[in-house]
Amino acid sequence: MNNRTQWMEDLQKNISDLIARSPAADVERNVRAMMTQAFARLDLVTREEFDVQADLLARTRARVDQLAAQVQQLEERLAALDAK
Asked: Which of 10, 20, 24, 49 can pair with 45 through a Cys bridge, CB separation 3.0 to 4.6 Å?
């Protein structure tokens, strides 16, 4: 049984070595390089950067809404003063 196990391990190692030296390894490296270049040109952002910007946008939107409400109140007060 040990001899059969050793034979399987040797076969697996030989197949792994063959694949590592085959054109498939070169194709994988070339595809990775092409994809990396393509992603670099797309101006992609990380999830962390996206989340930071989404949080900033939400806080900015809340502040704009608050200021809009204040402007509305001031306009109403001004209209009330003009009506007198």
From this structure: 49
